[in-house]
Structures
1.
Amino acid sequence: MDFLTALDILLALSLIYLVFALVVTSLNESIAAALSSRARWLRRGIASLLSADPKKLDEAAADRVLDSPFVSFLGTPGCFKTFRPSYIPAWTLMQGVLSTVEGCRDDAFARVADIRALAEKLPARSPIRSVLIDLCARAGDDLDAFRGQLDAWFKAFEEQLTAWYRQKTQYVLLGLSLAVAVAMNVDTLDIVRQFSAEPKVLKAVVDQAGDAAKLDGVDAYLDSRARDEARKALDEAITAVEHADAAGRARALETAQEKRAALTKAQDELDQRVARLTDTLMAGGLRLGWKPGEFRQWATSPAKVESWNKLFGLLISAFALALGAPFWFNVLKSVASVRSVGPRQQDQPGTATTPGA
């Protein structure tokens, strides 16, 4: 195998890993949406802020905050409260927390002194109580200064919450990558053997990879603009609800629900495009998936060398998919750039390769 042939195989593998990494991402987002994973981590974060014991989470107090009228409008009704908000602005969170304090009034957030008076009634030794009292002390009577400091603190809190969520998501992605690799029989060793035995299959995938490498990024390859715009529209609608007065809140809530439905539809269409990418990948003759009875034969013959090779090939693919679509798109562009320096000798008109060369 010459160097340029090896580059072609690496380029083709990069496209295959890219497509199936997108499948993994699509599955992960669907599962996360169904289970409201981000919302659950936000709930845990709020529970940690309200707990007087650093080793425990006050989830009952977090539920009271999320059910308060200042916060509940950000979510949607659902079974077992699975559609709670995934993101809450700092000011809205503070309002939700302090609204659970006895004696809170709707106009209690117009002065720093009133905010401090409510904060002092929060559970002793709870992190949110200490934070709010400290911010009130540093802001004095300046409500704008207090809000600015609150936003800065909340940004750091949200970044840590996102870090927790991403760390947990990595384990989920690895599990999904293994599931996709096994379900679709994405065996790296078998794919390489196909490319070596059938140059036409390799060329078909390389041509697709070359077209993909001309694009600017993963978003352009998948064309996720509609989904991204729908997500942005929903964020803007939620912000509009937050700032709406009593007369306009009902209409703002209705608009937010419409934007949420539009986002769900855009995500479904994106998932369909991911499925079409896998079909296109195999249109050139690439064989993926299990033949009838093949999976059972592999699973029931663990002692055979072929079974160990199959397991090794699937594990390589699983770890590759877990690296993510952006990683493999960058690899694809890099390899395509190196490959474009010159055509392979066997691709030049009038040249022939010697068998076995």
2.
Amino acid sequence: MKAPKENGFRCVVTGGCGFIGSNFISLFLAEYPLAKVLNLDSMTYAAHPQTARHLDSLAPERYQHVRGDIADPQLGELLSRFKPDAVVNFAAETHVDKSILDPSAFVQTNVAGVQNLLTLARKQGNVRFLQVSTDEVYGSLNPDDPTFTESSPLTPSSPYAAAKASGDLFALAAHHTFGQDVVITRCTNNFGPYQYPEKLIPLVIANALEDKPIPIYGDGQQVRDWLHVVDHCRAIALVLATGKSGEVYNVSASEEHANLNIVRGILERVGKPESLIRYVKDRPGHDRRYGLSAAKIRHTLGWSPKLSFEEGLDQTVEWYLQNSGWWRSLRDEAYAAYYQANYAPKVQEQEKPL
């Protein structure tokens, strides 16, 4: 594969108008001023039009956005015209609650879509395929268990995690069967700017600012390992450029925090009372703890996080305070879905040439 720093490097990013994908495109265009990016995004509910406009303004001569679904076999023609050196796949259905309500959409995108994209990329020749995955494929840890490594077995608990694990296995199978250049990253919980307000941290910030109740599953002692999105994107760019084909790389800042403590920290930062907290029935099959060892990517590729959790949370809260117009346009839909899932007795439910 041509190195990203070389002139004319061409990268397809799928799901680039979503949270992590948009942050990656911003970083990638800044870090590699000779590279070009084609953003393929179907613009589902989590892809904000304002995010798309922000990306359009960054480097219009090196960036384009095409609306499309990774499960569409006709995308082969688009890839043939663009002639990518790499494909970075962020496109996914990601919300665990929604996967419990309707797993079929997760199978379509996270399994069938990944397999289709792998096939189309393989037909382009020497194209690196980077599959962006999640720590949830490993399942749950007990409080005293050591953190997961890349050799830990995959034991997903939710339909979302099962679909992501399936996509990972298809990617690894493509490497072993066809010799396809594939690398996989598995990250811990991300937070930062442009995150859709159904996720814990932006949901809590938005609810608190509007004095709305903040639902907490069970006792709120579920532990997650948190990573700022920019540190995650730096790791993805590094694996894309220097990762070994056929390998998996865990990405973690080793910042484990209980959900309830995070909620309390946000309430303190925005000056709101803990009386806004509402404990609700726990999610079915809710994993108790996630935690990853990032020893491999640290030792073999030299990656390390730059932001501590507290610094990152300060920056994230400030971003949502300064960009209320971005999240308020999504707020009602996200809050209604979360409220329905947790409180209701029954759940209803141009392309331009580069």
3.
Amino acid sequence: MSQQELIALSLDKRDILGKSVKHLRKQGILPAVIHDHGKDSIIVMGSYSDIYRAYKHAGKHHPIELSVGSKKFTALIKDADFNPKHNTLTHVVFNAVNANQTVEAEIPVHIVGDSPAAKAGLMVIHTLSHVDVESVPSKLPDELTVDGEKLVELGDKLTVADIVVPEGVIIMTEPEHIVAVVEETKAQLSEESEEATEETASEDAEAAKPEATKEEK
């Protein structure tokens, strides 16, 4: 998806509030709200399937073109609440943004390229899935990447400083924050532990032998 492309979503104003919104959800309608630069929030609703599809494509980083009657907004999804039991959306908060002003957003981070460490049987642990960035909405990337080929040996790390940053994007997350690290697998750790235990047992057994008498020597 091009970072210039906007996802369009049509919403309607909503008068139903509080516990009554559960009736909307049963009808396949999702409650939402639009925050607009310190102005009064706009209480809205829309088709569950349409909003869910927009959320899956946009996440919290891709601009969405909202239509509410005759009004139009460029917005980012700020929060998305889910039902923990069914993993279904229950409410969405949109933040209206100015196309010419910088905004903050969460951008997914992916490791690209084959890691020599992984090929060698080591384990690559991903410790950071998103970073916070600042940019004008039109330049927000769908994802950021780091080069997995730099992970070669045990203890090698990728940090935020290794992320490829597009022009016009500033990463707000600390540069030393670890994105991925190379560790031994559980099987390797278990094997080393067994070897260490065997060595200790052997040393203990040797130390437990009685000293030879002069006659025996």
4.
Amino acid sequence: MNTGILAYGVALPKYRIEAQEIWRVWKNISPHFFDMLSIGERGVLGPEEDTLTLANEAARQALGRSGLEPQKIGAVVLGSGTSPYATKAAATVLIDTLGLPASALTADVQCADKSGSTALWMVAAMIEAGLIEYGLVVAADTINRHTAPGMIVEYVASAAAVAFILGKEQPIARLEAYATHNHDQNDYFRTEGERYIQAGAGFYGWVANWGLLDHVVPAGQALFAQTGLTPADFAKFAVPQKTGVRPLMTMGKLGLDVMQVLPYVLTHQIGDCGAAGVPLSLAHILDFAEPGERIGVLDYGAGAGCDAWSLVCTEAISERRPQSGLVIEQLEDKIMVDYATMLKFEQKMIQSPHRLSNFY
């Protein structure tokens, strides 16, 4: 393929909460699981933050880094399972906020946690086919707003957005190959009209991750078979990381090395970012990647399949590597809050729609 990533952008909530602060309220899990599952802090949405505001911020950063005129963007696709709209395409809002052309193909893609990867390859196919020259893809989710208080996953439920500008002209990383494996399996899901995500198969160990290996292993094996590559041919991997257990399970079943995976697992610092989780790990990898490095991506969407793909960094990455706004910098730029503040900011308390003010 000639299509690749020209630039990328990342947006993380500045507010964070410690797992121990959530445990202080609920005490619904043994604290020793925090170390075992690499659970530390997770993002908390600000009072005015949602999937779209994070997506807009990440996309604005990516556009600025690319140096492209907004009018050159031919497609805008938002990959998310937590759009603020039930039916309207939230991506159309990005057209207005970013000054993108109304002629750009605009759509939302919903494939659970792999929404961003699926959206990226759909736009890449359009570029390869010559239908458009450049495309904007954003993977964004606010899992925290859609997790009920007291659920075990509240300890990791987070939010983030990662945006990619795709094109053929001097990419910093060229897309190489793609494979996927999909079948229906109830892992985490949210039905029509419900606010909160349900856990279809528990949370811990093999029971909690039953859909993970059934999708990730066949997808990863298909990528290796299609390309003739082996795990040793890859420098680094971005893998599913709802908790610290998932990277270990993925790594063990696909024959990956610990140093190909674990340095790029961000669960302990930011939690589960949904559709932005694996793309965030990829952005962290690209922040420090070197020319010629091959990177593998395994993006599992809770019961909705797994996309496996590879990309190879070009010489351009040395010249156009971001100098500020790195993932690690945004992870460290934070304000800690308590549980009550988290409930307020994420609007977890049901209030009457007929209230006249905050004082009644």
